[in-house]
Amino acid sequence: MSSRLSVEERRAHLIEAAIGLAEKKGVAGVTTRDVAQAAGVSLGVVHYCFENKDALMTELVKALAMELRDSVDANETVWQDVGSGKEALQKLIRAGLELMWQGVEATPERQLLTYETTTYALRESEQTPAKLAIAREQYAFNDSTIGDIVEHAREATDSQWTVPVTVVSRFMLAAIDGIVLRWLVDNDSAAVREQLDVLAQMVTQYSA
C-alpha cells in the first residue's frame, strides 16, 4: 500500500480486506496477520491503525452498516415532493426500506457476516467480557442509522411520532434482522417485499 495514503484511507483499506477474509473464513478465523497479508502491508501497519482485532471488528461492523445507510441516502429523489401526513410517511418509509433491501439482496455474503459478527462477539464475551462491546456497538450504530432514516422521513412528511423515535428504530431493526435472516435461509424475495409492506404499515400506526 502506498505510504502516501492517509490513516483513514489505510483504515478503510484494512477494513475492506478484513471483510473479504471474514466472508470466506468467518470472523473467528480472521487474524490481524491475515488482514495484513490480504491488504499487502506489514503487521505493524495494522496495529498502527487498530489497537487489536476487536477494534478492527468494531469498525468492520460499522462499515457494513454504513453500506446499507448509504444505499438509502444515495437516491435523493425518494425524499423529494413526498407530501405530508401518515399516508405519505408510510410510502416514504416503504421506499426507504426498498432501497435498503436492494442493497441487502445484492450482498448476501455481507449480510451473513453481520450475524456472524454478533454471534462471535457474544460467544467470545464468555471468556473476554470486553468483546461484548463489539455487538453492543454494532446495534447502537444500527439503531442510530434507522433512527436517522425514520426521523428524516418524519420531517419530510411533516409528521410526528406518538412514541419515542428510539422505540420505532429498535422495533424496525429487530424486524429487519429477522426478515433478512429468514431470506438468507429461504431466498424468498417476494415474501420479503410483502413483509416490508407490513412493516411500513405497522410503523406508521405510531405517527400523527
Task: Show the helix and strand layout.
Blueprint: H1 7-25, H2 32-39, H3 43-49, H4 53-73, H5 86-105, H6 108-124, H7 132-156, H8 165-186, H9 189-204
Features of this protein?
single chain, 208 residues, mainly alpha, Arc Repressor Mutant, subunit A, 9 helices
SSE sequence, one letter per element: HHHHHHHHH
CATH class of the largest domain: Mainly Alpha
Mean pLDDT: 90
Q: Structural class, please?
A: mainly alpha
Low-confidence stretches: none
Per DSSP, the total helix count is 9
CATH architecture tag of the largest domain? Orthogonal Bundle
Helix content: over 70%
Computed CA radius of gyration, to the nearest angstrom: 19 Å
Q: What proportion of the residues form beta strands (DSSP E)?
A: under 5%
End-to-end span in angstroms? Answer: 53 Å
Number of domains: 2
CATH topology of the largest domain: Tetracycline Repressor, domain 2
Shape: elongated
Question: What profile does the largest beta sheet have?
Answer: none
Number of extended strands: 0
Keywords: DNA-binding, Transcription, Transcription regulation
Protein name: TetR family transcriptional regulator
InterPro entries: Homeodomain-like_sf, HTH-type_TetR-like_transc_reg, HTH_TetR, Tet_transcr_reg_TetR-rel_C_sf
DNA-binding region: 31-50
